TrEMBL record:
Keywords: Carboxypeptidase, Glycoprotein, Hydrolase, Protease, Signal. PANTHER family: RETINOID-INDUCIBLE SERINE CARBOXYPEPTIDASE (PTHR11802:SF3), SERINE PROTEASE FAMILY S10 SERINE CARBOXYPEPTIDASE (PTHR11802). It holds the Pfam family Peptidase_S10. It comes from Chitinophaga oryziterrae. One of its GO terms (biological process) is proteolysis. Transmembrane segments: none annotated. The keyword Hydrolase applies. This is Carboxypeptidase. The keyword Cell membrane does not apply. Residues 1-20 form the signal peptide. InterPro entries: AB_hydrolase_fold, Peptidase_S10. One of its GO terms (molecular function) is serine-type carboxypeptidase activity.
Amino acid sequence: MIIKFLLPLVLLSGVLSAQAPFKNEQPVSPGRVLALDSAIVTHHEVTIKGVRVPYTATAGSIPLWDEDGKALAGVFYTYYEREDIKEKSGRPLVISFNGGPGTPSVWMEIGYTGPRLLNIDDEGYPVQPFGMRDNPNSILDVADIVYVDPVNTGFSRPVSKDVPASKFYGVNADIKYLAEWINTFVTRKGRWASPKFLIGESYGTTRVSGLALELQDAQWMYLNGVILVSPTELGIDRNGPLDAALKLPYFTATAWYHKKLPADLQQKDLNDVLPEVENFTINELIPALSKGGALDDAQRKSIAVKIARYSGITEQVVQENNLDVSFNLFWKQLLRDQGFTVGRLDSRYKGIDKRIAGESPDYNAELTAWLQAFTPAINIYLREELKYKTDLKYNMFGQVWPWDNTNNKTGENLRQAISQNPFLHLLVQSGYYDGACDYFNAKYSMWQLDPGGKLKNRLKWEGYRSGHMMYLRKDDLATATENLRTFIRESVPAKGQPAKY
């Protein structure tokens, strides 16, 4: 009788805890309706860097309201809070987003920074049985973390189909409503005094770059750090010769990995090869492409030979494409002679197409592998370990289209936020084998954030020998999380230090 009586209240108020009088198998959200305001609390511990860390995990949702206080959606989150820290004012809080823009925060939560890690092999490939293990590299030792699923990703949902999609699905709408939600979350959890960090991956970097300024301007919330993992172009224009040229260093890294470079380059370490290619790209390729049809035959031949040398693609193919080999053609062409394609998000992965012929791969080999590993793991984890019982489908890719990409000024938003806030630091992390958000374009974006060179002591870029989700490779997971720890510690000022130039 208690269960039958309380269920309608759950749907209206949704406020729950792990101590609520429900049987273990009773859903938080019976049917496929989200409990708009819910919280299931469980207690755990993990050993990080040899130190036992007890923590509380809260899985739940917090409503998003309109200007009149009417609920528009429930935003699902998981929040990890270290239990043996009494004073929270100096304890950093990391607010984490992934991208898509239609994906939840599953990728970094159980692949990178969270206390639990999905089962994969040392290079990131799926293994069975699917499931979870402790993450000895989690950053929970130095910061509390909340993972946020934007509307229609994960378990997050609008309250009804009548809510206009324009409230959520666009560059600036996304930033605006998530800033409001973050304000509510920080207020509820009593974290206004904490040093705050945003971390975003892929499209999540567009999101957090815009949020850095929106939180300052609209919520009066100031950050200590922004972390961009595999960043997008952030609305920074690079059409024409720049767009054609900047991808070449990624081509080189991929060709090096697959042993497709000339012998003299192949025998060098990757970190010794890439500076040479970057120099060629900036000082020779961009000027040559800028000439277009005015480039004379001898110059065109010279540039084509070098592109072929650095990309593993034949000079003939380079010439046939006017010195501009597309990403799709590169992924199809590099291993065509072996009958394989290479992955878009991580070109260490190989795929097999129906036909060897063609100009683009049939599918993304790496994404298929990742979905195979992550989907069962997150469903097992949330429902069985964190006890969030629901019949809702966990959307690995939710319907957020059409997405309004107009007026994307997020790179400039981030620059303004850093300029206006002397405490704010930036860390950029890239995988050399990422062809969706390639590492050299990430460097270029960071350079353009600071055209005057006055902020460069607060901007840092790091590269790793893996792809879009560099943390799936065991060695890079250890290195990248340690770099996050260092960044967080160095971005928190000494007690009493003023924010001024």
